[in-house]
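Hi everyone, sorry if this is the wrong subforum. Our group has a chain we'd like a structural model of before ordering constructs, and none of us has done structure prediction before. Sequence below.
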Amino acid sequence: MDKQPRTTDNETMMLCKQVRYTGRVQGVGFRYTAQHLATAYEVAGYVRNLPSGDVELVAQGTADEVDAFLAAIGHHLGGHIEQSFVQDVTPGDHKGFHIR
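Answer:
Right subforum, don't worry. Here is the predicted structure as tokens:
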């Protein structure tokens, strides 16, 4: 059974994921690296520091693009990340990928 009930075509399904990263994720270029990595994917959204010391990232696009982008974040910044908490959120009106 398909894990995504709305459609079986991952390439056309638009989704939005909100991720909170914990660890040593502030003061290490996390936001700038995420913004740079986003240029290689068809994603929109933002990345920002949180007062708690965590980083929040929102990525919107097709399932394949968002998943590939988040995998790239994990690959390039995994040494700083202790945990990541991912949740699906309603797609918004994001244009481009920005640092907030």
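For your construct planning: The beta strands are 14-23, 43-49, 55-62, 81-89, 97-99. Residues 1-11 have pLDDT under 50 and may be disordered.
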